Amino acid sequence: MEALDPVMVEEWMGLTVTVLDAANPAHVGLAGVVVDEGARTLLLRTAAGKEVRLPKSQTRLGAKCADGRLAIIEAGEALMRPEDRSKRLYRRVQTK
């Protein structure tokens, strides 16, 4: 079982992210703040104020964490309700 970045069990609301890879090529390069999260989607608000709903499956995000580090989020690994993510993924998170 592959270890995950600690950001996978943290709250994603308010996190500044950039779409690095996605099934829809139009989403690649989008940047903004996560304003809502569902079991299968993320709602991203761009700097222009536009809201874009992204599917979690087949989406890779780059995130700037509160501690200043950059993290890669494999959103497809989190196809679950946000409140269940920390319970289900906790064992797979890297401990440093």
Give a quick set of tags describing it.
SH3 type barrels, globular, mainly beta, 96 residues
Task: Give a verbal description of the structure.
8% of the residues lie in helices and 35% in strands. It has 96 residues and is mostly beta strands. Strands 4-3-2-1-5-6 form a six-stranded antiparallel beta sheet, with no helix packed on it. Strand 2 and strand 3 form a beta hairpin. The two termini are 17 Å apart.
Quick rundown:
With 96 residues, the chain is mainly beta. It has one helix at 82-89; strands at residues 16-21, 31-37, 41-46, 51-55, 60-64, 70-74.
Beta-strand segment tally: 6
Mean pLDDT: 88
Radius of gyration: 13 Å
CATH topology: SH3 type barrels
CATH architecture: Roll
Spatial gap, N to C terminus: 17 Å
Q: Helix-strand pattern, N to C? A: EEEEEEH
Q: Provide the low-confidence segments as ranges.
A: none
Q: Major beta sheet, specifics? A: 6 strands, antiparallel
- % residues in beta strands: 35-45%
Shape: globular
Oligomeric organization of the protein chains: single chain
CATH class: Mainly Beta
The CATH homologous superfamily: Ribonuclease P/MRP, subunit p29
**Total DSSP helices:** 1
Query: How many domains would you count in the coordinates?
Result: 1
- Helicity range: under 10%
Q: Give the structural class.
A: mainly beta
Secondary-structure blueprint:
Blueprint: E1 16-21, E2 31-37, E3 41-46, E4 51-55, E5 60-64, E6 70-74, H1 82-89
